[in-house]
Design brief:
Elements (H helix, E strand, L loop, with lengths): L1 H23 L5 H11 L1 H10 L7 H26 L3 H24 L4 H18 L9 H22 L8 H21 L7 H27 L2 H8 L3 H11 L6 H17 L2
Length: about 280
């Protein structure tokens, strides 16, 4: 029960971070927002390590974390690039569902099949992710855009798998590797593209929220995956679009499509079933 609750909480926090990052990119460049928000997350990361240190910074924990961070950063770049091409109504749900399906398949293969209600709940979660992520709009997506969405979702799904297999004794040290990998990849891209890391005042405020929220969500998911089944925990954690949509509704007064409302209800059903 606790891993499910922590995974659901990680989804809420991830959604808040994604919403904040999206607000920051409305006034500043996405690459600068991504790198600067990750730098802003370092104090929260230090606190997580001090509170839940585990057995220490083993090469395995740091190495797998760095790999997860690098893959996750590539997924973010692909996500931003794909969304900039339009057809968000196709790109977002394809990415989100792929993110959930990859760790689901790996978890079923490695850990076996969970209980029937939990498995039904996981299925509901995947469908809910697709419905909630689907933005209103009728613009058609090209084959290239769909391929970018699949690749972005694959990166995020692999991130979930790697972080979920870190083990129970690693504590929060894998997150140090995650941040090292993502920052190294981000700074490499910054140097190669010669893009200045400048944010305006509005973007700075949102980045200071996005970065810490990302680390906190990672920490919650890492603990949930270490004590629960990956096939259940990962799809629940991937429900982060739910809180992003709710914040868009409450803060920005965005129009929510009927399919998204149905997805919100299905997400609640998924949580109840997965916890049984």
């Amino acid at each position: 029960m606790l891993p499910i609750l922590l995974a659901a909480l990680s989804a809420v926090v991830w959604g808040v971070g994604d919403f904040s990052g999206g607000k920051a990119t409305q006034t500043s460049r996405a690459l600068a927002v991504t790198v600067m928000s990750q730098l802003a997350s370092l104090p929260v990361l230090a606190a997580c390590v001090l509170l839940v240190g585990g057995r220490g910074p083993t090469p395995g924990a740091l190495g797998w974390g760095a790999l997860a961070g690098t893959v996750g950063f590539v997924g973010i770049l692909l996500l931003y690039h794909g969304l900039s091409q339009g057809a968000m109504a196709v790109f977002a749900p394809v990415t989100a569902v792929t993110t959930a399906v990859i760790p689901l398949a790996v978890g079923l293969a490695l850990d076996g099949t969970p209980s029937t209600p939990a498995l039904v709940g996981v299925g509901c979660a995947v469908i809910a992710i697709a419905l909630v992520s689907r933005a209103p709009g009728e613009r058609r997506a090209s084959a290239r855009t769909v391929a970018l969405a699949l690749l972005s979702g694959l990166c995020f799904g692999v991130f979930f798998v790697i972080l979920g297999r870190a083990g129970t004794g690693a504590g929060m040290w894998p997150l140090v590797g995650v941040r090292f990998g993502s920052l190294a990849a981000g700074l490499l891209v910054v140097v190669r593209m010669r893009e200045p890391l400048r944010l305006d005042r509005v973007a700075r405020r949102w980045a200071l929220i996005a970065g810490p929220m990302d680390v906190l969500a990672n920490a919650l998911y890492l603990y949930a995956a270490a004590h629960g089944q990956l096939a259940i925990v990962a799809p629940i954690g991937a429900l982060y679009p739910v809180s992003t949509v709710l914040l868009a509704l409450l803060v920005d007064r965005e129009r929510v499509a009927p399919t998204q409302i149905a997805g919100l209800g299905l997400a609640a059903t998924a949580l109840v079933l997965a916890a049984t």
